[in-house]
Specification:
Low-confidence stretches: 1-17
Radius of gyration: 18 Å
Distance between the termini: 12 Å
Strand order of the largest sheet: 2-1-3-4-5-6
Shape: globular
Structural class: alpha/beta
Number of helices: 6
Helix content: 25-40%
Largest sheet: 6 strands, mixed
Mean pLDDT: 88
Strand content: 15-25%
Amino acid sequence: MSVEDFLSYNDTMMKNSEERSVVLATQNRDKLRELQGLMLDTNVAVRSLSTFPKSPAVREDGKTFEANAEKKARVYSKRTCSLVIADDSGLEVKALRGRPGVYSARFAGPKCTYADNNRKLLQAMRTVSWPKRIACFVSVISVYDNGKKVATVRGECKGKIGYLEKGANGFGYDPVFVPKGSAKTYAEMSAAEKGRLSHRGKALKLAKKVLLSYLRG
């Protein structure tokens, strides 16, 4: 069933029905916190992979965000026999021909930190003028239930790469990404501000509608 079919369902919350749960296929606490916050007004409990300690990591070897998100959701939903959502997200920089892209989390190498990635990105962009510092944050979220695909959604936010890291909020490339129409980086915004603009916020809202419609139907 297409995403459009799911989104045509009534978006009424399932507060009067039995509580359900969904597993977020990540060990990233920042992503877990974002999804848990979004689902607070529902009776859907969000669990992390830490509740399945014997489930080994899935190799993210896809060439697209969609391929990685769907692989993780499919594999983990089979292993846990659960409803699972998985995401793959990253930053595409025009001057770098779309890099770091699907390698965003490990742009500076294995076991790198957020700071390592930002330093490498700013170094690579050091001679690029402001008009050409165009970038796009992408988030793809896939929903699978016990190995069966439910839907895959995508959220994007266009913007530019700043010259310096600014702000102490958020994570990842947030201190260097300035969304279109804003003078602040993601990291200078409150969680609510970022949520209204961000690629992941857009994708999570679509995923929430898909989840609720699926659980109702």
